[in-house]
Write a structure and sequence with these properties.
Immunoglobulin-like; three-stranded antiparallel β-sheet; 6 helices; about 250 residues; alpha+beta
Length: about 250
């Protein structure tokens, strides 16, 4: 655009124009965004961008881990002009009116993509406290050693007093998991067959028992010779032979 002598901006207006350009450039320096999920990562699509459900689940206040002085941060960031190399997520707070860095988390495996998801803890022993709001920045260091802010946001840490989740039993709670049949068996006591096992002697086979025992009748004694003939039968046969001999002699 060409200006006539009357339309050309005066030299007095140049500083204002330059200042406005600097403000606009600074605003574009961190066009990215940072969001937080409570207790689980924010839902993303295949490209890494937030889905509709992910946007709804993002929180402005991050509640602590129940019973602990720590906050589990599920961080999602959309980065502006990132480059492959270490990425730092910084947390800042004002101390006596001056910004002071509290913690700097490093993502060493950043590939330079537009989106990134990370998970780490914000612990009380490194300077985080409840009911404080922190400025969060995604930062990379350029070749000249200068920090370049790729995204920026804020998060407040709170403690709502929620209770830890109760254990439902099983191995983690130390309780024995018994089925209904196991309970019924324990109430009925040991099986009778198991109690009698130790009292009974093992049954013998037919070969081990041998032939049945023959008991003699009362009032007589019968002896069997080796050839199978009994004593009375032998006497009768001998007497019969003697009679026959006498008849022949007569």
């Amino acid at each position: 655009m060409r200006y006539t002598h009357k339309q050309a901006p005066s030299r007095r207006m140049l500083p204002a124009i330059v200042a406005a350009a600097v403000v606009l450039t600074a605003g574009m320096a961190h066009a990215g965004d940072i969001k937080f999920g409570q207790d689980k990562p924010l839902e993303t699509n295949d490209k890494g961008a937030l889905t509709g459900e992910g946007k709804k689940a993002a929180v402005k206040e991050l509640d602590n881990v129940p019973g602990e002085d720590a906050w589990q941060a599920f961080v999602w960031a959309q980065l502006d002009r990132g480059a492959e190399g270490p990425l730092y997520i910084e947390f800042w707070q004002e101390v006596n009116g001056n910004p002071s860095i509290v913690h700097r988390h490093e993502e060493s495996g950043y590939d330079g993509g537009k989106y990134i998801s990370a998970e780490f803890d914000l612990e009380g022993n490194i300077g985080f406290n409840k009911n404080r709001t922190y400025t969060v920045k995604a930062v990379q260091v350029n070749a000249k050693g200068k920090d370049i802010t790729l995204a920026k946001s804020k998060i407040k840490l709170i403690k709502s007093g929620r209770e830890p989740a109760e254990d439902e039993g099983g191995e983690d709670s130390g309780e024995e998991d018994l089925s209904d049949q196991d309970v019924a068996d324990s109430l009925a006591g040991p099986d009778e067959e198991e109690e009698e096992v130790g009292d009974k002697e093992p049954e013998k086979t037919d070969e081990e028992q041998g032939p049945p025992e023959v008991k003699p009748k009362k009032g007589c004694s019968v002896q069997v010779s080796d050839n199978g003939w009994s004593g009375p039968m032998v006497l009768l046969l001998a007497a019969a032979g003697l009679v026959r001999r006498r008849r022949k002699a007569a």
